[in-house]
């Protein structure tokens, strides 16, 4: 957390570098910077985003998260998201499974819907703890609006590179329509002694389009394409602001991977204990999840782009880019089937999968869990 001195990221663990994309240059339409964004979004699907100008909002959101997690558990449980696939509200540690054996996660988080933040004091989806309400206008709403702006700018740049009609992807993320877009603040307790490969948050691909992530300690890992090894991603900023001040981590989720016929990459990732001496500390992260609005079909936009049509035609399993599900159904299925209560075995695990079965990658996962 801000203000607490934490140990640096160790240099004796496998670390995956990320391209650094300058948000201001992308916003200004700089084609070399958009090339870099394209490279990152198509190859690993993760990058650092610098100069996003949201540091003050991010800091305040971490405060909101801290105030919320300090509430008594029974107060937080009044706002638990439940087992039906809703993704808004509080999730207690242990409420989600990290594997098909039902091993439980160790993170707790609070998810605040974009729609509730923007409509407050009206309620669109649900109500939240007092600590959230107290900061909705001053903290959650400004963060939400800034994150939306950033995500829409990045999506707009990717849209044009995909050969889609200008504005097409942005139309599928209409701010005025209900969606599962949300902010999430996550806490993982100190993990000293926890095995380095025990997931705090199970392996997954993100459900939506773009994630705008801020973390302060290591623990996030990706499985790079074509490998079966987990690699750490260094935190977006160390607690003292070094070595990556003002950086976020951005990653592509399933919706953009599907819209683009697999050209944009939704990469598998997970969270484990922070490495080395960092494990002795609480781990906090903050994400804004930018997702298509409810009702948008998750299918390749092949009719709108020759590049996407060609990618689908060249795919080993072209059918997987027509999911038959809407963005909201996709998310609810995946959330529901990861709830500990619903984890009845490998079949339930399979039912909660997203694009992890992408044949280009994740060989270990493919071995572990047959593609559906
Ligand atoms: O905490 C992190 O660094 C990543 C969290 C994450 O992957 C998620 O919430 O989807
Ligand atoms: Fe994620």
Automatic annotation (TrEMBL):
Domain Fe2OG dioxygenase, first and last residues per copy: 177-292
Keywords noted in UniProt: Iron, Metal-binding, Oxidoreductase
Pfam families assigned: 2OG-FeII_Oxy (PF03171), DIOX_N (PF14226)
Family annotation (InterPro entries): DIOX_N, IPNS-like_FE2OG_OXY, IPNS-like_sf, Iron_ascorbate_oxido_reductase, Oxoglu/Fe-dep_dioxygenase_dom
GO molecular function, one term: oxidoreductase activity
Alphabetized SUPFAM superfamilies for the sequence: Clavaminate synthase-like (SSF51197)
Similarity annotation: Belongs to the iron/ascorbate-dependent oxidoreductase family.
This protein's name: Fe2OG dioxygenase domain-containing protein
Gene source species: Phlebiopsis gigantea (strain 11061_1 CR5-6) (White-rot fungus)
Organism taxonomic ancestry: Eukaryota, Fungi, Dikarya, Basidiomycota, Agaricomycotina
């Amino acid at each position: 957390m801000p203000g607490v001195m934490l140990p640096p990221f160790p240099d004796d663990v496998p670390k995956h570098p990320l391209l650094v994309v300058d948000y201001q240059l992308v916003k200004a339409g700089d084609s070399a910077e958009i090339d870099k964004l394209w490279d990152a979004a198509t190859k690993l699907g993760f990058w650092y985003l610098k100069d996003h100008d949201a540091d003050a909002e991010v800091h305040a959101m971490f405060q909101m998260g801290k105030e919320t997690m300090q509430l008594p558990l029974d107060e937080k449980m009044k706002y638990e998201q439940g087992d039906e696939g809703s993704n808004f509200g509080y999730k207690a540690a242990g409420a989600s499974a990290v594997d098909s054996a039902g091993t439980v996660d160790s993170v707790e988080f609070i998810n605040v819907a974009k729609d509730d933040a923007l409509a407050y004091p009206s309620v669109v989806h649900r109500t939240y703890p007092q600590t959230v309400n107290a900061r909705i206008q001053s903290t959650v709403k400004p963060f939400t609006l800034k994150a939306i702006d950033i995500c829409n700018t990045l999506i707009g740049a990717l849209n044009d590179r995909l050969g889609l009609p200008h504005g097409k992807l942005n139309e599928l993320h209409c701010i005025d329509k209900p969606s599962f877009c949300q902010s999430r603040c996550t806490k993982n307790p100190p993990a000293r002694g926890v095995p380095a490969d025990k997931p705090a948050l199970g392996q997954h691909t993100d459900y939506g389009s773009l994630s705008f992530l801020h973390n302060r300690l290591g623990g996030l890992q990706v499985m790079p394409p074509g490998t079966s090894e987990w690699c750490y991603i260094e935190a977006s900023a160390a607690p003292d602001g070094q070595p990556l001040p003002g950086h976020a981590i951005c990653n592509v989720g399933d919706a953009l991977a599907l819209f683009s016929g697999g050209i944009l990459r939704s990469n598998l990732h997970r969270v484990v204990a922070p490495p080395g001496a960092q494990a002795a500390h609480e781990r906090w992260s903050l994400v804004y999840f930018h997702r298509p609005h409810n009702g948008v079909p998750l299918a390749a936009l092949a009719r709108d782009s020759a590049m996407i049509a060609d990618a689908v035609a060249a795919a080993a399993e072209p059918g997987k880019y027509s999911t038959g599900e809407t963005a909201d159904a996709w998310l609810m299925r995946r959330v529901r089937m990861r709830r500990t209560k619903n984890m009845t075995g490998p079949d339930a695990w399979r039912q909660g999968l997203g694009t992890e079965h992408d044949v280009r990658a994740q060989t270990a996962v493919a071995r572990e869990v047959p593609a559906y």
